[in-house]
Design brief:
By secondary structure, this protein is of the alpha/beta class. Helix content is about 30%, strand content about 15%. The radius of gyration is 17 Å and the shape is globular.
Length: about 280
């Protein structure tokens, strides 16, 4: 497994003088991320460029629930090893973060009466949450809470959820949508896995999304079924695209021009990740 650069426990913590924390959308990868030195440096460097958040609320593509649900919020939240075919060491990893009960109460209070939130007592962090966060904040010294995606993938609803979470940024909370900019896993071949050959459908969808994001064109991004190229291949199911709308909803500007922090491809899939103002 690739060794990660030493982290500083003295990373400057967020204060109100910093203003709101950004909201992030990141392509999270599988446990194989821990074998990619470049990707680990990119994620870790991104975290180090920000003040250390007071807490993290992350919405992962790997948990859909109706009603909305929150993960267990006690200290040492367990991990969900929702993957197969990887080395045993990945099933033995831990990420014992501090108590996130205060954040859970705030998130529940921010949701409207017609959007009930179920608080789990045992559900842990899935790999869409703990794999990138273990890379970004390896000391596990920031409280982490996971929120589920709705089972109905409606961009307007997700944007509204993000908008309601926006107030958390004023308190130093890092709001993260964790997906993958392209996720056509069923269509990957040996060339992608071994040589990182980028298929045309992945490049085309990524270029389309990058253009819309650069213009703050949320309307086009939301109309992905009508406007996105190669959608069937890039997202045969759309759960890895949907967290993007929580991030955009949490932005200060309703049509945010985002800052791309990571781009390129892994196994032919787009790693594009960004932060909002």
């Amino acid at each position: 497994m690739t060794e990660q650069a030493p982290a500083s426990r003295d990373q400057r913590r967020w204060t109100p003088a910093d203003g709101p924390m950004p909201a992030l959308y990141l392509s999270h990868g599988s446990p194989a991320l821990f074998e990619d030195a470049l990707w680990m440096r990119e994620l870790f460097g991104w975290a180090q460029a920000l003040p250390k958040p007071t807490a993290i609320l992350i919405v992962s593509a790997h948990w859909e629930s109706a009603p909305l649900a929150l993960s267990a919020s006690g200290a040492g939240t367990p991990l969900v090893y929702d993957f197969g075919g990887f080395a045993r060491r990945y099933f033995e990893m831990t990420y014992a973060t501090p108590d996130a009960g205060a954040l859970a109460a705030k998130v529940a209070a921010l949701m409207p009466d017609d959007e009930p939130v179920h608080q789990h007592t045992r559900r842990g962090l899935d790999h869409g949450a703990w794999v990138p966060l273990k890379t970004m904040y390896p000391y596990a010294d920031v409280p982490v809470l996971q929120m589920s995606l709705p089972t109905v993938h409606a961009p307007a609803r997700l944007i509204d959820i993000g908008r309601r979470l926006r107030a958390l940024r004023e308190e130093g909370v890092l709001v993260v949508g964790s997906g993958f900019m392209t996720h056509g896993v069923p269509f990957l071949t040996r060339d992608q896995f071994v040589h990182n050959v980028v298929p045309s459908w992945s490049a085309e969808f990524d270029a389309w999304a990058a253009d819309a994001l650069s213009r703050g064109d949320v309307e086009t991004l939301a109309d992905y079924r009508g406007k996105a190229p190669a959608l069937h291949y890039a997202h045969p199911t759309t759960e890895h695209y949907m967290p993007l709308f929580v991030t955009l909803g949490a932005a200060a500007d309703p049509e945010p021009t985002v800052r791309t922090m990571i781009e390129g491809y892994r196994f032919g899939l787009s790693k594009r990740s960004f932060q909002t103002p």
